[in-house]
Batch of 4 targets.
Target 1
Amino acid sequence: MTFPTVRMRRLRRSEGLRRLTRETRLSRDDLVLPLFAVEGTGVREAVASMPGVHRFSADQIAEEAKAVADLGIPAVILFGIPAEKDARGSGADADGGIVQRAVEAAKSAAPELCVITDVCLCEYTDHGHCGLVSGDTVENDPTLDRLADTAVSHARAGADVVAPSDMMDGRVDAIRRALDAADFPDVPILSYAAKYTSAFYGPFRDAAESAPAFGDRRGYQMDPANRREALRELELDLEEGADILMVKPAMPCLDVLADARRMFDVPLAAYQVSGEYSMLMAAAERGWIDRSRALMESLIAIRRAGADFILTYAAKEIAPRLKP
């Protein structure tokens, strides 16, 4: 049947009809808020390139965690910026390190909040790369032990989930083995499984002080031109023991998200990264777009493509508009 028998606009006539026939829904349960932890006390420092985003000392992380939980947001993911960095990223698994203290503070203030930790070396190394470096080469296999030790230290501090973001081959298997050996078999791994080299990470590197001192990350992060390769990365991480898979960045990779949703019947996350967020904020500040509507539309698109939940810097702003 065709027009005039079929009239697609019939079900769009009123808000009630639109709500009844809506295919994709966004709730507070779908949100994870990224937080940046820094040394010091009483620190709440605005990130210039990310409007509305701050870096927090551990005591302020506690206050922020409580506020997030009170909004009904189920989870945060923590990134740490240590006072000192070195070639091996010693601060990543240090006793009393910045992320370890931030985890403890968040869990103490909001025990019901799910605290995820980013497992990587880039924020902790003086060269800014995600693994150990030999000359101009980022070494894969020697990095695995450092990542595994970091994940275990996060679990000891009370992290609910560890999330390796480095893109070293074999890291999920190494982390799973280390967690099990350290008596943390119940701590799940959220793998940044399909993580592309992206220009959209720029503001994050400003916030986390993690820009590479030489070269770039194209030797280990994925080529944005590749789609089939992403599915192989996702499948390999799942075979190594990942419990949740992530695609990053989100909006430029909606096709990959949709492919992953069709192929894998496991929880799927997507990261609306700093550049995606900051572009929307900058356009809204200039009056070019409606900030609230644009944020909502972008997150709905990510859910529609197949993500079960979304890491987004807009979580606190969006949450009051959503149902649980």
Note: The chain has a mean pLDDT of 95.
Target 2
Amino acid sequence: MKKNLLGSIALLLLVCPSNAQSNKSTENVNQIWLGYFNQTRLNNKFGLWTDLHLRTKENFIDNFSASFVRLGLTYYVTDVIKITAGYAYVSAYPADAHKKITQPEHRPWQQVQWHTEYGKKRMMQRFRLEERFRRKILNDSTLAMGSNFNFRIRYNIWFDLPLSKKGIVPNSMSLVLNDEVHINFGKQIINNYFDQNRLFAGLKYQVSDQSNVQFGYMNLFQQLAAGNKFRSIHTMRLFYFQNFDLRKEGYQKK
């Protein structure tokens, strides 16, 4: 088990894009990401997914770059494997390409997620498919009719490594390592099939059996649509997670 875990961590580091692209144009930006996540299990087979996000634009506290509302319905194949489908609404606030308007995006999404435990250590993996409909822009202050469209697939691997001998229990701390790679595809994608990679390291405080807070540093390395331009976003990330189970107390896992 330990060898498998170490191998997965090595894979996590390998998929992170190298900054050998530095001979090309790379923009460096500092941001803060705030997020709230809720997964509520309704019964043996179904649950609800909610997550909300707000991101700053630059210099950590200057303006806002985007906000997200993501909702989904989850089907539990087993207690550790689940499939979710849902919808997200994204607001991309004024930026260089649209300095006076907010660009909306409609984003249906589907994912499969599974959890593995290695003693007191935990690992989560997830594949997510997104269909992105981003409203076209006419000029700095006007939206155009219609939307640009592309697919994007995301692979996320996440490790929770407890710092207490008791494991992951209320009032304990864990080390969290997380990597997620995003790949674009579709007719409108020409130069940037690789979209971005998000590498995160931080600490988790387990508030209770149902909730935890995670804080740390994330580097987001992104290839822009031009193909030879990149963005490296240095991010302080603060996420709050809640997991509720509304099944009867006497329910026995199957």
Note: The domain at 2-17+39-243 is CATH 2.40.160 (Porin).
Target 3
Amino acid sequence: MSTGDFGGLTFLVTGANSGIGRALVEALAERGGSVVLAARSEDRSRPVLEEIRRRHPGLDAQFLPVDVSDLTSVRNAAAQFMSSGHGLDVLVNNAGVAGTQGITPDGFDLTYATNHIGPFLLTNLLLPRLQEAKQGRVVNISSVAHFRVKEIDWSVLERRTTPKRSTFPDYAVTKLMNVLHAKELARRLTGSRVTTYALHPGAVASNIWRKVPQPLQWFMKLLMLSNEAGARTPFYCATAPELAAATGRYYDKSRETAPSALANNAAMARELWIRTEQAVSG
């Protein structure tokens, strides 16, 4: 495909001012796609927007303030976008964290809120606009870490008052939730024009590891992929014409591959949906 392939399409990417998200919106803009950079910091997003606009004069590039760990922020962001009347073709749930210790304003563990609960709510709220698209897509950035999960302790979706350090196993559970969410959403959207995807971007030296203590974080990143390499599979899932009829599937290195056995557990996917729905409505 050549530059301009995605003219007329709008891509909303969370966590878009750094890491994989930034590399992804830059690649989409390079091909003429309108981009919405959904992120917490306008100050950190401004240089990214200015660079995109400088390189692609006339391209529609916008900033949408959202902290996906804060449900009020998610609701405000969705309301702002919906009221703008702007179309939406692809939502990429990219924002994520690992190794955190904190509780959100809603009382949820910060890792679970950022990686699953907030994106779940944002997806639901933006779904009406995606359903208006010729072929809407929801892309969840997961990880091969989900293979390490043996079970889900559902109490992680409950409100709490005392923070605890989220470990790698917690991160892995949230990444399993990303796959289950994509699968259950695909089931619920059967017969619609919206398709869903979950993927492993590779082990990427992105800001997702910002809460991991130094010098461990520095050493980890030495062994990881660049953000540009990490954006390739998300880009593929967000744009590949051959995936228009595929939904609820899992990808690695821009190829469909089998997720874990738990990720294929339809009953678990339904239970996760119900429990998360209860969490965001409570």
Note: Strands lie at 10-14, 34-39, 61-65, 90-93, 136-141, 194-200, 249-252, 255-256.
Target 4
Amino acid sequence: MRRVIILLLASLLLSAPAQAVLPDEQLRDPTLEARARHISQELRCVVCQNQTIDDSDAPLAHDLRVLLRERLVKGDSDEEAKAFIVKRYGTYVLLKPPFQFDTLPLWLGPLFVLAAGVAASVFYFRGRNAVARRAAAKLSADEEAAVRRILGNGEA
């Protein structure tokens, strides 16, 4: 039983997500490489969507990783390197886009969808209540006689 648990834990450790950064992409300077890894965790692979460029195997993610490292080697600060990539690929490349005019749909879209859902629910339940109220309204004497005739309970 102990061996099974150890094998299970080992298999779970081996199945952890692998980083897509290739050895030939890595910088020799550990400080620069750490900076590159930190920045690349904030950049989205525009092909894979919602994967960082570090996690993606896509050729474009590879190009972005190489471009980022080139900018750092040239002496760019973290913000300058990130700004260079954003200038080239747009704010969509950021996993956490800034709150500005062109990203308003990203930030406010979910609120509009929620508001539309609440409004649709209100209209639906109001309509349902109106139908129930109309159905519960008292029948006239003629209507009651018609119902009795249909059901066969009353006078014809």
Note: The chain has two domains: 19-98, 104-151.
